[in-house]
Design a protein that fits this description.
DUF4250, globular, DUF4250 domain-containing protein, alpha+beta, 2 strands, two-stranded antiparallel sheet
């Protein structure tokens, strides 16, 4: 998954994919970002557009954290 994929995918689908990868394959956000060679800013900005932010305690993106 690269920057162009981040922009093409519907944000809700991206959310599902990212949270599944965090749950099943990656122990934390840094590991996910390194594996997929993604920028934290790009991913966070994309998911903030639909109201989601990363929660390190649960290792997933959640809504309404602010």
């Amino acid at each position: 998954m690269d920057a162009s994929t981040l922009q093409r995918l519907d944000a809700n689908i991206l959310l599902g994919i990212v949270n599944e990868k965090l749950r099943l394959e990656c122990d934390n956000l840094d590991e996910l970002l390194a594996y997929y060679d993604m920028s934290e800013d790009q991913l966070a900005t994309r998911l903030q557009q639909i109201g989601y932010q990363y929660d390190g305690v649960s290792n997933q993106f959640k809504s309404g954290l602010l």
